[in-house]
Amino acid sequence: MLFRANVNGTWREADIWAGVSLLSALRDDLGLPGSKNACEQGECGSCSVWLDGVLVCACLVLAMQASGREVRTVESLSVEDRLHPVQDAFVEAGAVQCGFCTPGLIVAVTDLLEQEPHPSEPAVREALSGNLCRCTGYAKILDAVRLAEERLESAG
Amino acid sequence: MTISADLAMDVLQPSTLDEALEMRRDLPDAVVICGGTDLMVAMNFGRLRPAAMMDISRVDEMKQWRQEDGSIFLGAGVTYSRIMRELGTFASLAQASRTVGSPQIRNRGTVGGNLGTSSPAGDALPVLAAYEAEIVLVSGRGERALPWDRFLVGPKRNALEPDELILGARWDISRGPESFSKIGTRNAMVIAVANLCLVVDEPARSVRVALGSVGPTIIRAREAEAAATEVIPWDDPSAPIAEAATEGFAQLVARAARPIDDVRGSQAYRSHACRVLARRALSWALEEHRMDGGS
Amino acid sequence: MSVRTVTRSIPDGVGTSSRRIDGTPKVEGRYAYGSDLWAERMLWGATLRSPHPHARLGSIDVSAASASPGVHAVLLARDVPGKNTYGLEFADQPVLAGDVVRYQGEPVALIAAEHPEQARRAAARIEVEYELLPVLSDMQDALLDDAPKVHDFGNVLRHIRIQQGDPAPAADVWVEGYYETGMQDQAALGPEGGLAIPAEDGGVDVYVATQWLHVDRQQIAPCLNLPEEMVRLHMAGVGGAFGSREDVNVQIHASMLALFTGRPVKMSYSREESFFGHVHRHPFRIWMCHGGTRDGRLVVVRARLLADGGAYTSSSSAVIVNACTFACGPYEVPNALIEGTAVYTNNPPCGAMRGFGAPQVCFAHESQMDRLAGALGIDPVELRLRNAMYPGANLPTGRPLHGAASVREVIERCRDIPLPVETPLESRERSLLPGGVGNVTRGEGIRRGVGFAVAYKNIGYSEGFDDSSEVEVSVTRGPEGAVVEIHTAGIDYGQGLHTIVAQIARTELGVSRVVVRQPDTLIGSAGSTSASRQTLMTGGAVHQACAAVRRTLFGRLQARHNTGLEPDPSLELVGGEVLREGVAIATIEELLDDPVVERLVHHHRRTTSLDENGQGDPHVEFAFAAERVVVEVDEELGLVRVVQVAATADVGKAINPQGVTGQVEGGTAQGLGLAILEELQVKDGVIRNPSFTDYLLPTFLDMPPVVTEIVEDPEPGVPMGVKGVGEHSTVVSTAAIVSALRDATGRDLNRVPVRPDDLIGIVPPIQNRGGWPPSPKVPGNEPIPRYVGLSRGQGELMDEDG
Can you give the residue range of the structural domain that contains A39? Predict the structure, then answer.
């Protein structure tokens, strides 16, 4: 079935099996493996992307549901060689170990800070409770959120 | 990758309700998908392989809610995130929405999905039961409304006809304290071990208590409701309540539950949890009732 | 060996929290994990697995599958080109089941197809006749004479005994306990995945997420009937491991399909398949008896350990030895009798998981110490201080404790970390109450508890195993100055090995630009990334190789200046320059007309196996850990919120402090999982919850802040004085959390994971129907497969290196 969507600013097409998720279409048909397949059941958030500007788990979207829509993935965040402040904050704060949860978290954190530039710690924890990390114990991810918050604030 | 005809699956994508109903009539076996938070799990793990799916996420008529003269109509396609943002006055519903999954899930999941799946663990379902909601169904033949307990007939079974779609739910707006509680063994992202919704209807002087995840379908604890009606000091909100009275209510709630042992929790724990949640929910309602002066 | 580090001038050297060397590609989503790989003309591989825990295989009809659209291969046991068995310690595990399956999920057939959905449908069309056999699912039943036999030679995998002193001395007070630990899963977020590409020479290149390239190759090659040189392993990005990738997963399967079809084959497991596709943490049953004096000195520890190894050996024989050697805890114990048995069952195979038997015994021995403290009326932390090990203290395995052992400091600094400020319940944000966003309490029934635990564990492999590490360090003059390249086969799956070896090279050679090559088998083995060993071994190897590079560079300088052949001790390399007594006399670039290349193999000190009384010198070095945990429990609902973890990490030398605390925090999260959340529920050999919906990992709302104190007491005789940090917080945190839960509820909690039912007391503490299990009759204390002539797995690798 023909799948056509605006992915990271470009219209992309692929002939896909109609039963695949948006996540599979991105990874296997569109050459965008940045969004991850840790569980494919909506429990881990590693596949977090934006669909029409809304944060979703790509594994829970039937690819055809995104046809004609706008999809943005982690791969859209760095521009040329410059990391997005959230991406840079993750590296600096030591919030990346194996990195498998990282793309999903970066999308979720970027989404959170766009909606709430100065969230309280409980709000951060609750907003990110759909993103699992098995390596870090979350402590340095919280540090990264704080660091990103400061950097985004000073960038205006 | 080139896809062979062997794997072909049809995806229908109506953009209006009429289109959707026509497709539903013509292809009743097409699996209806909206938020996909239940169905896509089954698709991803190879457990669901329909010949066709119908994506109703583009049908605007299903994504609306409106107040209608003392009652509220909630479209089946309104997401949990929107409920939290736009329908916060319905405290139980907003609270239940907050316990569903994660922001990613809440941005897609819908009450329509809970109704379509009809699992006793569906978080919105005890709320609809406590609100005495009716479920609005629509087909080419017209609209009909079924009381929630005539729609939810068993575990993962409902009364939807093959040519029908769930349009939404409707309930009368009442006034009074209400709360929703959900127990899971983790502090987020859990399928409920037990759910409880308690609604006090001040004008009607009635109490409704609904339980989830502790029986084959949603349970209303009717005996307990009657007892609660006796316990609440309708005329004198500041009157003290005997602990034995709240405990009696709580035990009746626990007795209404019909839980089982499964991977998520034991039967004994679930009964016990219902009792504790019931007592706490009633005490919160009584506190609110007292503070509001029973108005 | 002198310990020499140069710490001035070079940024991002040893002791700094240098940014991850692979951080940028990871945050951009460009870092290619095993499940992300792609190749032209690639096929997708899939595995058909047995749904039954124990069955004889009858006929297998693949005709419908082979005829399915898009299918290029359907392979069975008869299609394995070489040996049909592999295994870490013994080659007892079939590549594809031949005549019998011994656990639910055992691979039976392989499929390669154009599209993963085609592979899945073809797999469903394979018809397998299973004749169901009795299932052995209880580890104690495994010891009975009439139990079903998992293997022909019986169900005992290994039995060892450690005996020292008098097992029944006089003591003033005795405490006994029975403890159980459930089956935990490593649940690395990256699913198993890899790509096998057939090569023109008839060999194969395997890109895979794994923990040890060389031991993979050593197992793969005989199965493919290829010499090792024709099987080339390359590290693909690894999404965590924690022990789950020490055993082979997709490597042999993908290679077989690739060689058969002549096309690249990718395999990537779903989360559900992943639960069946790797080993798990051993469930243990532990009986313990501690005798002490009235003033709180331990007199004797007796313990009987039983570990459920599941269907195949994996690394179980090492796990049971590990558990036994640490069963007494980090305390001086004059008399000990520890017996441990690992058995086979038809449960899912168990093997390496972070801690390797130590978390389980730590839960038991720390529970015992709390019991003893209670019986004696002594403060629990004080009791531990009174018995704490020290350098030279008596080990139950007979030799004095070697190496740095500031156990008192580890305990005291943990104890002294300030307790968290208690925020009043009424004003608390709802999500920070036990039950989280569930709105189950507004402060009712909340009790606070504090618990403490201490542990120790070894670093490196044990019992005489020489797990060396080979590195090559080269320095060349690049267009912008000197560049160091490090070639190691050492896998970095998140703990930061590649980052720290670069830091070491910067400090040792005074060069900023360091490149770490992607690990492969073109260089010798670095050993496994496990056992908390890579800082010591590969870090140590790089340190030594840099010293060799320095010697060569100084030699060149001396040759140029004609200052003779004797090494000049006044020379140092700092900031890209050679200094003599602090004065710069040359730049490093001047000495790099030709590159300097140094390759060496770094070994640790020799260890020994254990004799029939468990006496010997089995471990390379030790590290100690303590944790203090504050919890809140809703005493009516049994729901938990861990409020704070305070931890000490005894690391010898912190190469990267941010990396160290990252390990402590992440390791604590896994221990928290074992304490209150995670269990693979297995009934009659069948896993009931192979999904993240019901196998619950801690979320952001479950993990507390962790405050870490780093203790740097250098280990003598090793480069940089380093220990390791990967496992120790996991070893100790489960025990500390349960200790806090007991303090909060007053309940006798003797099983992990603790459930709400246990915390509210609607079920009594778990009892064991028998007493201490009898000791099985065994020919000796070695793994039983050795006595029956099973060919050895990684043991052969050791022999190759001599």
Answer: 2-76
